[in-house]
Each structure stands twice: as C-alpha cells, then as structure tokens.
Design brief:
elongated; mainly alpha
C-alpha cells in the first residue's frame, strides 16, 4: 500500500522537482533560440563577408586586416567574459543545472 511521506520530505521533493522542471524549460528555450539565432547570424555574416570580399576583389574597397583583427579580438573577448559569467550563474544554482543542461541540449538539437 501507499504510505504518505512526511511533509518535510514532500516539500523538499516538490522544491527539487520544481527547480528541475523550471531549469529544463529555461534550458530548452535558450537552446532552441540560440540555435536559431546562430543560424541566422551565420547566414548574414556569410553574405556580408562575400559582399566585402567581392568589393575588395574588384578594387572598390580596401580592407585593413590589422584593424579588423583587433576589432574582432575585442568582440570575442567580450563574448568570452559574458558567457563565462552566465555559466557561473547557472552553475551556482545547483538544482537548476541538471534540468537546464538536459533542456538546453534538447532545445539546441530541436532548433
């Protein structure tokens, strides 16, 4: 027969399950959206790069590769710092991590 759990255990289980569920949903949404954004960004950047290379090939524009590299290093450094901060936030919320990671991977795969 089924025996009721003590109220303290029920509260703990409810809290853990709620955090896992919330983490999974948030992870799924972020993973799904991130994949969509990355696809669109890759297409847009690819088209821009092709246009710039074509214009450079025709001699219409001149590209300063040193300045371009310097600018891109700054952008990538900023993204590295921000993503590290985001993942530190996620990892400090231990009950959410399991659900978040599972949801993120599933959302990224489905996106």
């Amino acid at each position: 027969m089924y025996q009721a759990l003590p109220p303290e255990i029920e509260q703990i289980l409810f809290g853990v399950l709620a955090n896992l569920t919330i983490g999974f949903i948030i992870g799924f949404l972020i993973g799904y959206a991130l994949k969509k954004v990355l696809k669109i960004t890759a297409i847009v950047l690819g088209v821009i790069l092709l246009i710039l290379l074509f214009l450079h090939y025709k001699g219409i524009i001149s590209i300063n590769y040193e300045a371009l590299e310097s600018s891109l290093r700054g952008v990538f450094e900023y993204l590295r710092i921000e993503t590290a901060g985001f993942f530190n936030f996620i990892l400090t919320s231990t009950p959410l991590v399991g659900g978040f990671i599972a949801g993120f991977l599933l959302g990224f795969k489905k996106g």
